[in-house]
């Protein structure tokens, strides 16, 4: 075989092989005078050899078998210079030799001259990087200082080579592996800092918490160093770090760029700018941060798209297209149908200022509803006039003077909705609602407390918190009022870790009796505590310990809720694994229905015995005495609420998988499939909601098919949540396929009022803002999480864990918490004076360009539009011409353009 290969070699290769073997014989000889010239000759042969990308260089191939002999020859040399140069050669030859695990490439490099390792080629440098990483990782702690002193000079020369030869990614990898990112500082320049920062920023998402924060802070400082203020701001918002955010604003020298930074901040409702800004343009910045410009631009967008004309709910349902007999509206012309129409009209006309139901002065729509339906109908005015503080208060004001407390409560809630996401210096919401927070009427308190929570969501206002804390601790408050006050406190102080607020909520939770825990509203108290600590990660240790004194299953459920809020949107794999293990635990007594069927229930006890009664409680023979004992035990557990809540930790954990892994819909689909097939009944009920949370306003066909199957589930709670989840997934998309699917569901559930009500709600959500709004809490290329928007979504999702008693009961007004997450999915371009500036932009699907060489295109399949334009999920925009330069690196929301 060797002869055959030798025969295939051409004359040049044979000549090269002979010369190399001659040099080997000289190097292994006893004459040390010829060794140094021979090493120089061998170095030239290796460094000048050319090869293809897929083959080993010929000098290395021909010298592979001589590696062992050369090692022996080098070891016996006395001359230091010759020994060092010989070590350089051996370090390179170690790549071709069988040296796996020995790190001989690094060993001989350290013995050699270590002068410009890049001269030996990129592959040699890659090999050194790999072995340096292994050496750094495996060195014991006591030898760490010595190892650093030995390796750092070599590391610095490698990084210098990488940064000069378009290998920034490899340099970043090496620095992160050895935890020495500061070594990059001296080698950054105008041409390479962009790739370095982009790569480091994306690597941060795969690091543990402390390292992630460290990387993001370094990236923020790099961007500030090269005057990329908007990029620095977007990274600072990911931390989130109010100090870095403030630093970006005050160090920016340009007035127009500062306005752009304020526009980026205004989109985040949790107001991460905690310090007062006192620059020359402080008034302009404060105006931008108040979001007062949203309503005017939204009306302009509606005129551009020609969608100002209001629609009737029947135009959304399109009942005439539904199969299976007469129009459903004729069959179910009921209070529940009218209630659904109130919500649908509010969702469809959100922000438009006009609809067909509430605008009809001759035939007042409010009084076509019953009881709490009138509250929802009146509150829909707030949604219709969303963001219009000046114009929206006038049509609502007349309902504040009615003698009907339910209608008045709806008007109070409408006041809060109008102010949602907008800050007005007159504080109309606080002025109008504060006097009703401690009212003698429980109904009025509902509207006032919910209105305050929505109006000041994310503001962290201490005066609002004090007012709501008073409602929380008031002895006259019912469980419904207590839960709403807790929710409102959570919304106002989301992510603040405020010790006073958390103490008040925690104290109320610890005072609950078993009877109070049995009320379904009690589930909102742990949620409120979780909202206060949203995104705070390890800061939950103290409140979690305090929850240890609660009875089971409420202790476990509360701690799980606190954990999923603290790690919301982090994608923490360990937390997700922990939540999945909770979902896989069997709920005690879930298979005990056969025992319950034979257990007589007296009239004093609710005949509906929940499925999750523990078998250990009811074990025994079928004697009369045992039957009586079973009945008493069943009633006792029912009254204490243990029955209903036995599976609550599993439901919360199942929902938590979606909360923690927010934005990873496709990756989490398989996980949800397993829980949906094999999980407990409680865990299964949360699966559609968790799936929807991972794909808000992103109706992927595969996900729609899965949710459609769940909507026909035998468990009505699963079906309810699946139907509602379809609306969340398609929110504001006008998706024709989903609209058809919902019409088919409406026909299928024509005789089931509860199912049909949720189908109507979902139809309204699909046409949210006539297709202009989104519910997604992920902004700026899905990198920045709006915690306030997520908090509002979590309120409605926790309510859906008991849809029958909350959303389908009297607490359907909780659906207005979705308002916090509503946002136009647009791109609006402005000039430096904040006036609208229409330009041509190309819109297409975003492409991942991290680590790619050159200047790759960031979008694919682009279509040209004139701003303002709508952006679907996963779409990005770029300017068509070079006439203007955008001041924001991500073209979403409001972007200021500067003329080139």
TrEMBL record:
Q: Which InterPro entries match?
A: 26S_Psome_Rpn1, ARM-like, ARM-type_fold, Proteasome/cyclosome_rpt, RPN1_C, RPN1_N
Q: Which GO terms describe its biological process?
A: proteasome-mediated ubiquitin-dependent protein catabolic process; regulation of protein catabolic process
Which UniProt key words apply to this protein?
Proteasome, Repeat
> Where in the numbering of this chain does the 26S proteasome non-ATPase regulatory subunit RPN1 C-terminal domain appear?
850-900
Which Gene3D superfamilies does the UniProt entry name for this protein? Answer: Leucine-rich Repeat Variant (1.25.10.10)
For this chain, one GO molecular function annotation is: enzyme regulator activity
Keyword Repeat assigned to the entry: answer is yes
A Pfam family found in this protein is PC_rep
Q: Where is this region: Disordered?
A: 591-631
What parts of the sequence cross the membrane? none
Regions of biased composition (Polar residues) lie at 591-602
Gene Ontology CC terms, in alphabetical order: nucleus; proteasome regulatory particle, base subcomplex; proteasome storage granule
According to the entry, every stretch annotated as the RPN1 N-terminal domain falls at 23-322
List, alphabetically, the SUPFAM superfamilies matched. Answer: ARM repeat (SSF48371)
Keyword check for Cytoplasm: no
- Which residues lie in Low complexity bias regions? 612-623
Task: Give the family, as the similarity comment puts it.
Answer: Belongs to the proteasome subunit S2 family.
Describe the protein's quaternary organization and the partners it interacts with: Component of the 19S proteasome regulatory particle complex. The 26S proteasome consists of a 20S core particle (CP) and two 19S regulatory subunits (RP). The regulatory particle is made of a lid composed of 9 subunits, a base containing 6 ATPases and few additional components including PSMD2. Interacts with RPGRIP1L. Interacts with CRY1 in a KDM8-dependent manner.
Say what the protein does: Binds to the intracellular domain of tumor necrosis factor type 1 receptor. The binding domain of TRAP1 and TRAP2 resides outside the death domain of TNFR1. Component of the 26S proteasome, a multiprotein complex involved in the ATP-dependent degradation of ubiquitinated proteins. This complex plays a key role in the maintenance of protein homeostasis by removing misfolded or damaged proteins, which could impair cellular functions, and by removing proteins whose functions are no longer required. Therefore, the proteasome participates in numerous cellular processes, including cell cycle progression, apoptosis, or DNA damage repair.
Q: What is this protein called?
A: 26S proteasome non-ATPase regulatory subunit 2
Native organism: Cephus cinctus (Wheat stem sawfly)
Gene expressing this chain: LOC107268639
């Amino acid at each position: 075989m060797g002869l055959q290969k030798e025969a295939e070699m051409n004359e040049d290769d044979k000549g090269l092989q002979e010369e190399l073997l001659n040099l080997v014989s000289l190097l292994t000889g006893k004459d040390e005078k010829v060794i140094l010239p021979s090493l120089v000759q061998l170095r030239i042969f290796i460094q000048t050899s050319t090869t293809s990308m897929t083959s080993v260089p010929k000098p290395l191939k021909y010298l592979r078998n001589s590696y062992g002999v050369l090692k022996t020859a080098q070891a016996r040399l006395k001359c230091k210079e010759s020994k060092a140069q010989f070590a350089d050669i051996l370090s390179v030859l170690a790549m071709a030799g069988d040296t796996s695990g020995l790190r001989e490439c690094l060993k001989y490099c350290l013995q050699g001259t270590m002068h410009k390792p890049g001269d030996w080629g990129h592959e040699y440098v890659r090999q050194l990087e790999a072995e340096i990483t292994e050496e750094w990782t495996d060195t014991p702690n006591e030898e760490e200082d010595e190892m650093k002193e030995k390796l750092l000079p070599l590391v610095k020369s490698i990084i210098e080579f990488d940064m000069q030869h378009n290998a920034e990614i490899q340099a970043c990898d090496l620095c992160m592996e050895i935890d020495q990112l500061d070594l990059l500082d001296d080698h950054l320049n105008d041409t390479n800092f962009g790739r370095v920062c982009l790569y480091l920023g994306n690597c941060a998402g795969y690091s543990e918490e402390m390292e992630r924060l460290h990387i993001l802070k370094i990236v923020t400082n790099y961007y500030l160093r090269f005057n990329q203020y908007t990029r620095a701001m977007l990274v600072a918002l990911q931390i989130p770090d109010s100090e870095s955010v403030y630093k970006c604003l005050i160090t920016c020298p340009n007035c127009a760029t500062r306005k752009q930074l304020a526009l980026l901040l205004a989109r985040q409702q949790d107001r991460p700018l905690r310090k007062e800004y006192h620059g020359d343009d402080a008034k302009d910045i404060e105006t931008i941060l108040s979001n007062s410009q949203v309503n005017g631009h939204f009306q302009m967008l509606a005129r551009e798209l020609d969608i100002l004309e209001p629609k009737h709910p029947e135009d959304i349902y399109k009942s005439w297209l539904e199969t299976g007999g007469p129009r459903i509206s004729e069959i179910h012309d009921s209070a529940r149908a009218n209630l659904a129409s109130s919500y649908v009209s509010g969702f469809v006309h959100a922000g438009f200022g006009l609809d067909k139901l509430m605008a009809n002065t001759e035939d007042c729509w409010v009084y076509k509803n019953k009881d709490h339906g009138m509250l929802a109908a009146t509150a829909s005015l707030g949604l219709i006039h969303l963001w219009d503080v000046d114009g929206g208060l006038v049509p609502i004001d007349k309902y504040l003077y009615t003698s009907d407390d339910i209608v008045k409560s709806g008007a109070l809630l409408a006041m809060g909705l109008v102010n949602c996401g907008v800050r007005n210096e007159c504080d109309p919401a606080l002025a109008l609602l504060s006097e009703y927070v401690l009212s003698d009427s429980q109904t009025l308190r509902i509207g006032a407390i919910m209105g305050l929570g929505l109006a000041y969501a994310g503001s962290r206002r201490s005066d609002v918190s004090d007012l709501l804390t008073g409602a929380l601790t008031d002895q006259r408050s019912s469980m419904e009022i207590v839960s709403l006050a807790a929710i409102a406190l959570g919304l106002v102080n989301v992510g603040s870790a405020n010790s006073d607020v958390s103490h008040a909520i925690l104290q109320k939770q610890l005072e609950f009796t078993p009877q109070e825990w049995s009320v379904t509203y009690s589930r909102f108290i742990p949620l409120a505590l979780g909202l206060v600590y949203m995104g705070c990660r390890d800061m939950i240790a103290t409140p979690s310990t305090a929850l240890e004194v609660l009875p089971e299953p409420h202790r476990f459920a509360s701690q799980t809720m606190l954990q999923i809020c603290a790690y919301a949107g982090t994608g923490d794999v360990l937390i997700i694994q922990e939540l999945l293990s909770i979902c896989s635990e069997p709920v005690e007594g879930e298979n005990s229905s056969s025992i319950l069927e034979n257990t007589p229930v007296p009239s004093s006890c609710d005949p509906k015995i929940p499925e999750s009664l523990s078998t250990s409680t009811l074990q025994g023979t079928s004697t009369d005495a045992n039957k009586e004992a079973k009945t008493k035990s069943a009633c006792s557990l029912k009254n204490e609420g243990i029955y209903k809540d036995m599976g609550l930790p599993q439901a919360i954990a199942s929902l938590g998988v979606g909360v923690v892994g927010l934005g990873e819909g496709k990756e989490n689909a398989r996980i949800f499939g397993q829980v949906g097939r094999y999980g407990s009944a409680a865990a299964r009920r949360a699966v559609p909601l968790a799936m929807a949370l991972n794909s808000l306003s992103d109706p992927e066909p595969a996900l729609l098919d899965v949710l459609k199957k769940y909507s026909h589930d035998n468990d009505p709670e699963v079906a309810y949540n699946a139907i509602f989840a379809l609306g969340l997934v398609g929110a504001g998309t006008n998706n024709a396929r989903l609209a058809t699917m919902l019409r088919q569901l409406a026909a299928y559930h024509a005789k089931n009022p509860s199912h049909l009500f949720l189908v109507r709600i979902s139809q309204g959500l699909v046409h949210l803002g006539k297709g202009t709004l989104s519910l997604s809490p992920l902004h700026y290329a899905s990198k920045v999480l709006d915690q306030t928007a997520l908090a509002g979504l979590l309120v409605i999702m926790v309510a859906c864990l008991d849809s029958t008693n909350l959303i389908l009961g009297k607490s359907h007004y909780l659906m207005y918490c979705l308002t916090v997450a509503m946002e136009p999915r647009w791109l609006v371009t402005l000039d430096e004076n904040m006036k609208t500036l229409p330009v041509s932009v190309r819109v297409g699907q975003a492409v991942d360009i991290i680590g790619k060489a050159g200047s790759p295109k960031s979008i694919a399949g682009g279509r040209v539009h004139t701003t303002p334009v709508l952006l679907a999920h996963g779409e990005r925009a770029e300017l068509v011409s070079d006439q203007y330069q955008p001041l924001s690196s991500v073209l979403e929301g409001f972007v200021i353009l500067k003329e080139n």
